[in-house]
Design a protein that fits this description.
Number of helices of chain A: 13
Number of strands of chain A: 16
Number of domains of chain A: 2
CATH superfamily of the largest domain in chain A: Zn peptidases
Distance between the termini of chain A: 19 Å
Oligomer: homodimer
Structural class of chain A: alpha/beta
Radius of gyration of chain A: 24 Å
């Protein structure tokens, strides 16, 4: 005798197989879509052309699309958290809505369409916008951060449709702008009313479930020196030499913070709160002592840390270094904070959404996924803190390849992530039996 | 009884008085001319407007003017020594010729019209092109380096004319372009045939006679790192951190060279061969580990050093630092040399021209002038090495104020230098008695 539970379990297994088969059958579609997106550059601020491709695909896939440019007036109260320059003309968000039949939990599937710039071309062994394939991998700017994540969402929903699944809950696939500069796009989606019972961002987590995310702040240091002709350089004060002292101080500060932080999900991460100097500009003439230096960088925070408290301790550190140098004592470096501020955020590691993704991962991969924190800031905080929507990250790809020359992603890993997202959607949103009968009967 | 020598000495003294009085009477003219020149910006590459003012003044003063744009084809064999970009269209040299009556030594009075850029405006307490007067000083870019030097020459010749002096030898006042970038203008004048029995450049020597001049080379360092997202910055290699090692190595190299150098005129100079890092550019994004850094600088040489030998030892030093770092060992910094190369140069400290200026200084100031070397490179080398014209520098102003915010010069000191140059011209070129009779008789 077969129990009702056994029947349900068997039916579920069959449904899963049907959906994952549908993903496998879309492997070429998945690759083509990802390559197509990589070939349309979408550096932060220039997302329009790529978003047009996304909107067209969503419409083709039967999603009801909502395309709008974020409204600076609505974002203004959050101006400290996202960058609004250079405005949003020609930089729309795109959301595709798959309506549920009712009674299920709603889910937001978010990915950002913007990428960092390609960087130095000579560091690449391929065209950053060529989407070249080598074996299982596709190369290009945005390949893993995170056009593959967007493709994951789109193919997952397409596979569910292929499998004849009618969901109970609503699903919203979001392709948002400006994440690399604070996430004005995701925040604009929240403010437009896109809230749900859960949200998944397919940032490249290497197929780990990530319920905790570090925060980050961008800072700008301005150091004044005193100019002099190079031939009497000792009469001047080199802003470059003074910066070296500040930089050393910040690295010591980073080491000190790493020793102090005690958060279980960060235990395995060696540099939990990296402080990176990413840009330096100094001086105007080779034979003048540089009288100014400007450095831009990014500092990491862990969940539990307040942005204001961190800013204060950073300034205290800069002041302490300056106090040890006669010139800097009288000419203290100026620090300002710019760009988006990313508050660290976390949801419980055993939240229902986390369990749903874990279960789907087990169903697809046969093993428990790692549950980890990450050191980078992204759009999670807008969903959790402003949208009151539990949010986590899970996706294919290695963040170590992001922002890098030769950024790339494994197609097989994207296929796996797509299966997991599809099964998570099924589980989270639920399905009416009727929708399945055509295939499973 | 009055001897012929006594008569001559008395006559000479009277002549001197008459000429220095004439300079004093032109004090307002001198200030006005200097202020007018400061108010016409003439950063290297944009000298045209200022040269038009100079040519007009020379014509008014009765000098036969020669205005021409340097010919890149003629300069090409010297391409390593001067910068020819961005070309010379609209950047003419101007030479004013005062013909002697014959039988005297000829003299070139050279000044460069170009200046470095104004730099950071906020570092100035006045408009860099306002030519503001405060007490005895005039402020502005080029005030001491070296529009005052050009004014010195022009007013000296005007005063000689006021005093009714008819010179035996020819005098050529040169206002040349591009000195800050290698001296293409002065070299072009030499190649056009302007050679003489002596040449004086009125660079700001603080009224010291300078028969020896350091050389200099401009270098560009390119350091490669490896990019990574800031959140995993330890996966990357910061070009900024690697540059710090190279910079420290270059400062140690400078210290070593200072200990080794043994040149009598440099004994009093603490930093005889400064190595200055003037410009640094690194990275493109605050939250990416900077994968590149470019630094531009200037290294000093003393007379007796060969450019090639120095370049070799510089490269050896960079390589030695790189060899001590695992990353740099495999990714050695690239060094290239750019802009004008300034060979160091000297003439004997007791050369006739040096003695002439010393005597004139004694006549005006009542004390012996210092005889010194300087650590900067300028146009002396073109006259001495290419033009075979003995050349020294002597002028008002402090090179410590050159290339600086609030560059300024003392009008009184320019007046003194003008008297010394006028008397030097008189002594060097000689005069026919007839020319003086109208005033001294």
């Amino acid at each position: 005798m077969t129990s009702r539970t056994d029947v349900e379990a068997g039916l579920r297994k069959e449904m899963h197989q049907c959906i994952t088969d549908a993903v496998d059958q879309r492997r070429d579609d998945l690759s083509d879509l990802l390559q197509g997106l990589i070939r349309v550059p979408s550096q932060t601020g220039e997302e329009g052309a790529a978003q047009a491709v996304v909107a067209k695909r969503m419409a083709t896939d039967g999603l009801a699309t909502d395309v709008w440019e974020p409204d600076p007036a609505l974002l203004m109260p959050y101006a400290d958290h996202v960058t609004m320059a250079p405005g949003f003309a020609g930089r729309p968000n795109v959301v595709g809505h798959l309506a549920g039949s009712g009674g299920g939990r709603s889910l937001i599937l978010n990915a950002h369409i913007d990428t960092v710039e390609a960087g130095v071309r000579s560091a690449w062994t391929c065209d950053p916008f060529g989407a070249e394939t080598r074996g299982d991998r596709i190369f290009g700017r945005g390949a893993c951060d995170m056009k593959a994540g967007l493709v994951t969402h789109l193919i997952a929903l397409a596979a569910l449709r292929d499998a004849g699944v009618q969901l109970n809950g609503d699903v919203y696939v979001q392709s948002t702008v400006g994440e690399e500069d604070g996430g004005a796009g995701a925040l604009s989606a929240v403010l437009r009313g896109y809230r749900a019972d859960g949200a998944i961002i397919t940032e490249p987590t290497n197929l780990a479930v990530v319920p905790a995310q570090g925060g980050s702040l961008m800072f700008r240091l301005r150091i004044d020196g005193r100019s002099a002709h190079a031939c009497v350089r000792d009469e001047g004060v080199s802003a470059v030499e003074k910066f070296a002292l500040i930089h050393q101080g910040l690295l010591a500060f980073e080491a000190h913070r790493n020793r102090e932080i005690d958060h279980p999900l960060y235990a395995a991460i060696e540099n939990k709160v990296p402080i990176n100097i990413g840009v330096v500009r100094a001086g105007s003439w080779p034979s003048s002592v540089p009288e100014w230096l400007e450095a831009e960088g990014r500092a990491g925070l862990v969940p539990g840390e307040a942005l204001d408290t961190f800013r204060e301790s950073f300034l205290t550190e800069v002041d302490a270094v300056a106090a040890r140098d006669p010139w800097l004592r009288d000419h203290p470096p100026a620090v300002d904070w710019f760009g988006g501020q990313f508050a660290p955020v976390e949801i419980p590691a055993d939240a229902p959404l986390a369990r749903a993704v874990q279960n789907a991962h087990v169903a697809v991969a046969g093993t428990e996924p790692p549950v980890e924190a990450v050191t980078y800031g992204a759009d999670m905080r807008h969903f959790v803190l402003t949208g009151e929507t539990p949010c986590l990250m899970y996706g294919a790809g290695d963040v170590r390849l992001a922002h890098h020359a030769d950024e790339s992603i494994s197609v097989s890993e994207v296929v796996t992530a797509t299966k997991v997202i599809a099964l998570t959607v099924l589980d989270w949103c639920g399905t009416a039996e009727i929708g399945l009968r055509t295939r499973w009967s």
